[in-house]
Each structure stands twice: as structure tokens, then as C-alpha cells.
Design goal:
By secondary structure, the protein is of the alpha+beta class. The chain contains 20 helices and eight strands. It has a four-stranded mixed sheet. It has a two-stranded antiparallel sheet with strand order 1-4. Helix 1 crosses helix 8. The radius of gyration is 22 Å and the shape is globular. The model has no long low-confidence stretch (mean pLDDT about 95).
């Protein structure tokens, strides 16, 4: 890997295009290096993972709205598929629908470093373009490897949330780079596409603050759609604002810290394999990633308290000692009263570690539907326990969160439970059980089991097996429409009725 220092340059400075970050990313995308076998295997895992959560969310209102909008844009030639249904549709709209389906339940993969991200968000727009252009599985693998590589390395080098910028600002450029790889575009075209993609996908992080709405699911899907359109324009010779990151009125100078800040971005050297996907991890539970280890810890604590004859009603307080990010984004450090409100949206509560820990401690289980149901979140005993939970930042957990040593990088914390009689019980967990360093790391079998569990009652067994056979032979697949998963008509009939819109 080569570490690239990136800073603002005045317009009058001599700053050749070859030194622009967008140009360096474009060179990585255009590099025809072979994709290593373990990267290929993980790409297959993540396509399965995305299909799992997309199928599970297919009849939810935001996903239904996105699907109906996309279905208003059919095409007679080429086109891309939409999760759950038949037909071919305009690639950018299919990407919006599928990206929303993947993101809706907060249940797919994650990478956390200086910034946070869900790099599986690269897959829907890349797959849509690959289907539209009639590409094969090998091309899709190359594109996805690039998408993950660029997003993960931007996440390692540039913190966005510090400046209240939403994390999808790293996704637009990564999707554009991945499309460039798949289509074998030249460096200059990819450079222009990356610049346009960043310019059109920068927004504030209010989408993840306070009362969180369904836009949380749409945001990465919209970024993918914008990246497709940006690449299309660039292929036609249309340019982008430049230098997009380093310009005097550019991204770093005005959207991030200031013209004085220098960022360090690692990127593969020419000929170096793209392996960033191997640093990422998926979710066993449908909640914000920083809650994954906490949920597993709550399960263990429930068993321990039961063995000791402890009643949850006797708890005086629970303090979760954790990282800066967990405390200020999904903890009490966010100062969001909505995170303690039983009438809050699902999107808000999957970003409330207080709610999540209370339910996991009571139930010893986590379900993507039941754990967020109106009945579940309004139980008086749950509300009482929930409101006894708070978070504090612990410098050591913050240090481990930001560590570049993957053997000690951690996203968990310590729970301190104080009972009314003064008894204190503590436990801690660094990583989730499903994490590569956890008690039960996810491998191919676990990804397949997740798919089958979420597809049960929604997708016929024959369709499940057809999809799993196709995706596991991705490198030899010539028809990428085989990667679409169709749900049964009975299940699709459960979707909300079509509401009036423009399309």
C-alpha cells in the first residue's frame, strides 16, 4: 500500500492532475491486476448477504416505494433486475430500488475506521450496471473488488462525521471507480466520474441524527444512482469540478476540516491485489454495527443473571463504557431524546444502544422484526429498564476502535450493572461473535444459513437453491440476471398498496 497525503491547493499552485486523489483512485480502478481467490470468495459471501437482507425487507414501505418508482422505468433492451420481481428496468433506478432494499434493515456488512461505512452498498449499483451492459461474473468480481478497495481506504483516511457529512460521500466515488473497472474505462474517464460522483453525493449527516427517517435507507442507494449517472456523463466526455478533494473551494477546504488539514489515504500500488473486502465484517443482528458485540454480551449477561437468581427489575442502573463513536452516535452522548422514546421510528431505535441492550437483555434474542415491533418497544418493564441505561466514553475503547492493528481493533465495550442492593456485575466484549475474531466467525455456511433463514416463507426453496447455485459459481456466470431473487406472489402481496407519486 502507498500512503498518499491529500491537502487543499490554491488555484494558482502548480498541482498536476496526476497528483489529484481522484486521479490516483482512477489509476487503481484501471489497474487490471487479478483478483485473489479469498477476495473472490468474500465477494460471493457478500452478494449472498445482500440478497438475504433485501429479501427480508422487500415488503416494507420504503423498499416498496423504491421498487414501484423503479418499475415505472422499464427498458426494452438491456436493463437490470429488481429484487423480488421479474422484468428489466433502467439500471440507475434498479440500483436505487435494490440499494434501498439492502440498506433498509441495517443488516449487512460494515467497515469502521476514521469514518464508518457499509461497503456492501457498492454491490447493487455495480450489479445493475453489469446486468445492463451484459457483463459476466468475472467483470462483476473485478468491479466489486475495486468498490470495496476504494471505499474502505477512504474510510481509513478521511473522517466525515466529525464535520457532519454523511458517510455516503465515500460511496459515490467508490461506485464510480468500480464501474470504471468493470467497463475497462480509461483513467481520465474514471477520474471525471469520481469527481462528479463525490460532488453530487455530499450531504449532511442529519439523516442519522434525531428522529431518523426512511431516508437512511435511501441515502446510499441514491449515492449509487448518482455514481451511475456520473459515469455515464463522463463516458460522453463531460467533466467534473477539479480538483474535487483538494481544490481551493473543494471538499477538504469547505466540507471537511479546513484548508490546513492534511489527510493520509492508503491505496494499492500498481499491480497490488485488492484485498480490502477482507477487512470488513457482516452483521448477525439487525442493528447498528457498534451494537453487535453489545447484543451478544447482553445475551450472555441474561444467562448469567438467571443463574445467579437476579431479577432485572432490581437493577438500579446500567452504564455501557464504550468508544467515542458509540457514545456520541448511538449512545446517550448523542443527546437525542428520540433514542429513549418508545414512539420513535425503527430507524431511530436501531441507532439507540440503550433500547437495543434493554431488549437483548430481556429476551436473550434479537429479531429484525419482533425486536422493533410496537408491542415490544411499548412494554412498561422494557421502558423502565431502557431508561436506566446510559453510555460513557472510555478512552481505551476509543483507542481500540481506531487501532490499525486488526488483532486489537474493537467495537464493543464494558457493561456495569448496579443493583439496588449495591451489587455490581460487569462484563465486556471486544467484538461480536460473528466478527472474524469473534466466538463464531461467519463463513460461507453462516452466510447461506442467514439467507435461508431470512428467505423462509418469502422465497420458494427451489428459487433459493437456484440463486445459491448461481452465485457460488459467480466466476463462470455469464447471465448476471441469475443473481436476482424472486419472492413468492403471496409474500409480495403483503407489500403496502401503491401510493400516488409522480411516476
Amino acid at each position: 500500500m502507498i500512503n498518499h497525503e491529500v491537502r487543499t491547493h490554491k488555484s494558482a499552485e502548480d498541482f498536476p492532475i496526476e497528483e489529484h486523489l481522484a486521479h490516483k483512485i482512477a489509476k487503481v480502478a484501471a489497474d487490471k491486476v487479478e483478483v485473489p481467490a479469498d477476495t473472490k470468495d468474500m465477494i460471493i459471501n457478500r452478494i449472498i448477504d445482500n440478497a438475504s437482507v433485501a429479501v427480508a425487507s422487500v415488503v416494507r414501505r420504503p423498499v416498496t416505494s423504491a421498487r414501484v418508482i423503479a418499475q415505472a422505468h422499464p427498458v426494452s433492451e438491456g436493463g437490470a433486475t429488481i429484487f423480488g420481481v421479474d422484468g428489466n428496468y433502467s439500471a440507475e433506478w434498479a440500483a436505487l430500488a435494490n440499494g434501498t432494499a439492502v440498506r433498509e434493515l441495517d443488516f449487512h456488512d460494515t467497515f469502521l475506521a476514521a469514518e464508518y461505512s457499509h461497503p456492501g452498498d457498492n454491490i447493487p449499483p455495480l450489479l445493475a450496471v453489469a446486468q445492463h451492459k451484459g457483463l459476466d461474473g468475472k467483470a462483476l468480481i473485478r468491479g466489486i473488488a475495486t468498490g470495496y478497495e476504494i471505499q474502505v481506504n477512504l474510510v481509513k483516511g478521511i473522517c466525515l462525521h466529525e464535520h457532519k457529512i454523511d458517510h455516503v460521500a465515500h460511496l459515490g466515488p467508490s461506485v464510480a471507480a468500480g464501474i470504471g473497472t468493470m467497463l475497462d474505462l480509461d483513467v481520465d474517464t474514471i477520474y471525471q466520474a469520481i469527481g462528479q460522483a463525490l460532488h453530487t453525493t455530499t450531504a449532511t449527516r442529519q439523516s442519522r441524527k434525531g428522529l431518523i427517517s426512511s431516508w437512511k435507507a435511501y441515502a446510499p442507494a441514491f449515492a449509487g444512482k448518482m455514481a451511475i449517472e456520473a459515469t455515464d456523463r463522463a463516458m460522453r466526455g463531460e467533466g467534473a469540478p477539479a480538483p474535487i478533494w483538494e481544490g481551493e473551494d473543494g471538499f477538504i477546504a469547505w466540507m471537511l476540516h479546513s484548508p490546513e488539514r492534511t489527510y493520509t489515504i492508503p491505496l494499492p500500488a500498481e499491480g497490488e491485489e485488492k484485498r480490502a473486502i477482507l477487512d470488513t465484517y457482516t452483521k448477525e443482528h439487525s442493528a447498528e454495527y457498534q451494537a453487535q458485540a453489545q447484543i451478544d454480551m447482553a445475551f450472555a449477561l441474561k444467562k448469567r443473571l438467571a443463574e445467579e437468581g437476579r431479577d432485572l427489575a432490581d437493577i438500579e442502573s446500567i452504564v455501557l463504557h464504550t468508544s467515542h463513536h458509540t457514545h456520541y452516535v448511538i449512545g446517550t452522548g448523542a443527546n437525542d431524546p428520540q433514542k429513549m422514546d418508545p414512539d420513535a421510528s425503527r430507524e431511530t431505535l436501531d441507532h439507540s444502544i440503550m433500547y437495543i441492550f434493554a431488549v437483548a437483555l430481556e429476551d436473550g434474542d434479537w429479531d429484525y422484526e419482533h425486536s422493533y415491533s410496537d408491542e415490544r418497544k411499548h412494554r412498561p418493564e422494557t421502558i423502565e429498564l431502557w431508561h436506566k441505561i446510559s453510555t460513557v466514553e472510555d478512552p481505551e475503547w476509543t483507542r481500540r476502535y481506531h487501532s490499525n492493528d486488526l488483532s486489537e481493533k474493537a467495537f464493543g465495550g464494558k457493561a456495569v450493572i448496579t443493583f439496588k442492593d449495591g451489587t455490581v456485575i460487569e462484563d465486556e466484549r471486544a467484538v461480536a461473535d460473528a466478527h472474524p475474531l469473534g466466538a463464531r466467525p461467519f463463513g460461507r455456511e453462516e452466510y447461506i444459513n442467514k439467507f435461508k433463514k431470512l428467505a423462509a416463507g418469502k422465497v420458494s426453496e427451489e428459487e433459493q437453491e437456484r440463486f445459491l447455485t448461481a452465485v457460488q459459481d459467480l466466476e463462470n456466470l455469464t447471465d448476471l440476471n441469475e443473481l436476482n431473487v424472486r419472492v413468492t406472489p403471496d409474500h409480495l402481496a403483503k407489500a403496502p398498496k401503491k401510493t400516488e407519486g409522480i411516476f
